[in-house]
Amino acid sequence: MNHTTQLPDRRSVCARNGAATAAPPPAHARARRRPTSQQWAAWAFLAPVTLYLVLFYAYPLYRNIDLSLRNYTVRSFVQGDAPFTGLANYRTVFDDPTFAPALLHTVVFTAVCLVFQYAIGLALAVFFNQHFRLSATLRALFLVPWLLPLIVSASTWSWMLNSDSGIVNAALHTVGIDPVNWLTSPSWSLTSVIIANIWIGVPFNLVLLYSGLQSIPASLYEAAALDGANAWQRFRRVTFPLLRPVSAITLLLGLVYTLKVFDIIWITTKGGPADSSTTFATWSYQLGFGNLLPAFGPGAAVGNLLVVAALVFGLIYVRVQRKQASS
Amino acid sequence: MNSSARQRRLTAAALTALAVAASATACSSGSGSTDAKGAGSGTYTIWDPYPQFDKGSAWTKLLDKCGSQAGVKIERTGFDTSDLANKTLLAAQQGNSPDVLIVDNPVVSTLAEAGVLTTTDDNKLDTSKVDPNLLAAGQSGGKTYGTPIGANTLALYYNKEVLKEAGVDIASVKDWKSLTAALAKVKKAGKKGITFSAIGTEEGSFQFLPWFWGAGAKLTELDSAQAVSALSLWKDWLKQGYAPNSVLNNTQTTSWQEFASGDYAFSENGTWQLANAEKVGFEYGVLPIPGAGGGNAAAPTGGEFVTIPVQDDTGRYATSQKLATCLTSTDNLYDTDTTLSYVAPTSEVQDKQVAANAELKPWIDAVKSAKGRTSDDLGTTYPKISEQMWKAVQSALSGAESPEEALAKAQSAVK
């Protein structure tokens, strides 16, 4: 339905683009004048966004790659004469004893957060789709974690999980469980930041999946019910498959957001103790800014690894979508 | 056709998603380049790490006063202290350095290494009155890169009421052994022993240094037996419950808040908490940090240096020097250090401070025996050593490694 209404519009875009690439420069203009002026107008309309993208995305990305390929010391950073060293910074990063744990933590952090955020988000979305009384109010309340500034929620988590004066340990104490060093024990710190990050990410999944659910026509559920499908079968055979496109984009965006999570980890544990909650994002910051003597090169190299990881998953997503579209 | 347009849109979506990731990781150049040159040559810029002082404060009034004495207009920006080093590096890269820069002392050698700062030979700043142990933090390679505006250091605050309850005589606390014994008594009395900051940042190293130096260890040898004994002391306090586990995540401010709750007998904290100490609502005292076998341990010096960054227009130095001299003149030092709750860097002003407030005496003694972190010509190797040191402290206190293992690993990582 959507496709048919948009089709003519898209065709005209394609046609115009075709003209843009095929059209010769104005000097060689043939009899057809109109496309040329139209073309100029098109470029004029395109200019602000292109300029914006170049200034704020392309240039920083280029600078980051450039930083990672040169040997920057504080001196050469200021003088701007850092020697080109190829992949030396990447080799430094790969050989660093922090690399393996940071990679593992990044993978575990991202995977566990995504699974739980998606599962809880989907469960809540299905739940709120029932349209019971107060469902709108409750749904709005679930958005609170998303609306809070990250520094506020991260500081709050850090207080709640404090070993000695935190409310979580106080609650555990009342039910007779020994206090846990949530943020200061190497075996718990990663779990703690994962829990905090899941809490922050659930509303995002809830909102996207809820809006996805609303686009599923009610008649399908009626038909399924008439065929004798129970609630689980309706979810399994109707809701889940029809939600697949929304799920895919939710997971992709969630992945990008989770890969780069920095605030919550830095504020609660600083990546420690003993690197036990260090991910690539915090490691990159630690290298570039966490020390009196910044190591910009390796810091940028770690940042670029993150960008590449996000790129890989972005391409996988595009590929999967293409396959689905052609089938 | 339909699918190709769709593909394009999906690619765009994926690229946008990427851009979000990229903008988070890409370097944040440019944000620091506030218009440092100002409007005319009659405007001089000053950057300081005192964002807590706003327009009406004594500090900004002093800056304006010094400006009008030198016949120029002052444009002042206050930065968060942890931001200032990177902001300065970026500004220098853009040729936008401030005329006068007031910066935390361990950063001076890094900025000097970067070629951002002028030496006192170039800018003719007079540093002859300054205590040599304080000035050492701003010296590297035989050159001096600025003059301290004030100094602070660490000592032990103690809660007189808690100690009385536990039956501890503070005069008996002379070395590590007697301090640990006092902590044991306090714990027995149902109170908490000591709180400090062992966080995984420069702050953690700063707080560990008095114990490290107090054991006789050297920064060039992190895995010495003395260093292990200092780390074992802290580790033992945690194990025995004399110090809370939260020290691993404590900044000096949060550790102060724990002390201010009134439950703790001791707190390792700095001169800058003196004003807050008056507000805690219990009687407190101050004790220099004891060395392992008695005597006072050398504590690291804190506090800022007034420096004059390199400019394209070298003609500006003369006025910048006038501004810096004005800021560090005897009268102005006294006022500034009183506002900042710092110890003055010259004996002349220190005497004046003690005359006005006798409670400053232990602090002035502590500052006199204090040591710069970048002293001993460590310069820019200090940041690397410090990072390994705080990591070792974190590893040992969290139980990931024994003190010996952690420090041995730290030493091999520095090399």
Coarse morphology of chain B:
globular
By DSSP, the count of extended strands of chain B is: 11
Helix coverage percent of residues of chain B? Answer: 40-55%
How much helix, percentage-wise, in residues of chain A?
over 70%
Average pLDDT reading of chain B? 85
Summarize, please:
Chain A: This is Lactose transport system permease protein LacF. Chain A is an all-alpha fold.
Can you tell me about this structure?
The complex is a heterodimer of chains A (327) and B (415). Chain A has helices at residues 2-22, 34-68, 74-79, 88-95, 99-128, 135-142, 144-147, 150-160, 167-174, 189-214, 218-226, 231-242, 244-259, 263-268, 280-289, 296-326. Chain A has 327 residues and is mostly helical. In chain A, helix 5 packs parallel to helix 10, helix 5 (99-128) packs antiparallel against helix 13 and helix 13 (244-259) packs antiparallel against helix 16. Chain B has helices at 2-25, 58-70, 81-93, 105-113, 120-123, 132-135, 160-166, 176-188, 202-214, 225-240, 252-260, 274-277, 317-327, 330-340, 347-356, 361-368, 381-398, 403-414; strands spanning 43-48, 73-78, 100-104, 139-140, 143-144, 147-148, 154-159, 192-195, 264-270, 284-287, 304-307. Chain B folds into 2 domains: 43-148 and 304-341, 3-Layer(aba) Sandwich (D-Maltodextrin-Binding Protein, domain 2); 154-301 and 375-414, D-Maltodextrin-Binding Protein, domain 2. Residues 13-40 of chain B have low confidence and may be disordered. With 415 residues, chain B is α/β, with parallel strands linked by helices. Chains A and B meet through helix 1, helix 2, helix 3, helix 13 and helix 15 of A and helix 1, helix 3, helix 4 and helix 17 of B. Chain A: Residues 103-317 form the ABC transmembrane type-1 domain. Chain A: Keywords: Cell membrane, Membrane, Transmembrane, Transmembrane helix, Transport. Chain A: Pfam families: BPD_transp_1. Chain A: InterPro entries: MetI-like (IPR000515), MetI-like_sf (IPR035906).
